[in-house]
Amino acid sequence: MPMTAFARDERNALADALLAAGPDAPTLCEGWATRDLAAHLVLREHRPDAAAGIMLKAVAGHTQKVQDSLAAGDYAALVQRVRKGPALLRPFDEAMNVVEFFVHHEDIRRAAPEWSQRPIPQPYSQSLAKNAKRTARLSARRFPARIEVSGPDVEPFTVNPKQERAVSISGAPGELVLFFSGRQSSAEVSITGPDDLTEKLRGARLGI
């Protein structure tokens, strides 16, 4: 597949899910309905003046005002902006957006009363596996134990290899991406190890 196919296809699937759910459906993002999630996605790509507040608390107030303004607008037009994306960033779509779009697509799907895992084509699964490794090593770098990660299509890897105590986690690549993006309670993974560590990992503040 072309380099940007995964991000492009996930962008379209995410936009489809936003439209199907409507503007006021719940998501896994605490306090956000689908209109808020769509506004976040548009802000992130189209409003660099406000996007800094996603990561920096000092300017988070401005970010929230811009996001609220976007969310209050026409929902179908907002979703169309998500689907189209900014032309200038298309060469970077794969690097910037595969994890972002996959996770937020699942934020919509898994907030519904009934959901099931969707089939992931193997090439996409392999891409998610690489992203799971990067996401885990960044989001769990302060966890006070070694984390041994494995699963189908996942080359085993270790987070925090110098730690003495250890916990193991296994799951499909997409489930690992979700887990290490802070969606532990919604990710279908298996965790083994000392009870205190498994409980701590499930409740850890993960995410980038």
Folded structure, characterized:
It comes from Dactylosporangium matsuzakiense. Pfam families: MDMPI_N. Residues 8-122 form the Mycothiol-dependent maleylpyruvate isomerase metal-binding domain. InterPro entries: CHP03085 (IPR017519), DinB/YfiT-like (IPR034660), Maleyloyr_isom (IPR017517), MDMPI_metal-binding (IPR024344). GO terms for molecular function: metal ion binding. This protein is of the alpha+beta class and 208 residues long. It folds into two domains: 5-109, no CATH class; 124-203, Nonspecific Lipid-transfer Protein, Chain A (2-Layer Sandwich), CATH 3.30.1050. The chain has nine helices and four strands, in the order H-H-H-H-H-H-H-E-E-E-H-E-H. The chain has helices spanning 5-21, 34-46, 48-51, 60-71, 75-84, 93-109, 122-139, 173-180, 195-203, and strands at residues 146-151, 154-159, 166-170, 190-192. It has a four-stranded mixed sheet with strand order 2-1-3-4. Helix 1 packs antiparallel against helix 5 (75-84). The radius of gyration is 17 Å and the shape is globular. The two termini are 28 Å apart.
What's the gyration radius in Å?
Answer: 17 Å
Tally of individual helices: 9
Beta strands, count: 4
Query: Class by helix and strand content?
Result: alpha+beta
**Any low-confidence stretches, pLDDT <50, length ≥5?**
none
Could you report the average pLDDT, rounded to the nearest whole number?
92
Shape: globular
Largest sheet: 4 strands, mixed
The side-by-side strand order for the widest beta sheet comes to 2-1-3-4
- Give the amount of beta strand, in percent: 5-15%
Can you tell me the number of structural domains? 2
Q: How much helix, percentage-wise, in residues?
A: 40-55%
Reading the helices and strands in chain order gives HHHHHHHEEEHEH
Measured between the Cα atoms of the first and last residue, the distance is 28 Å
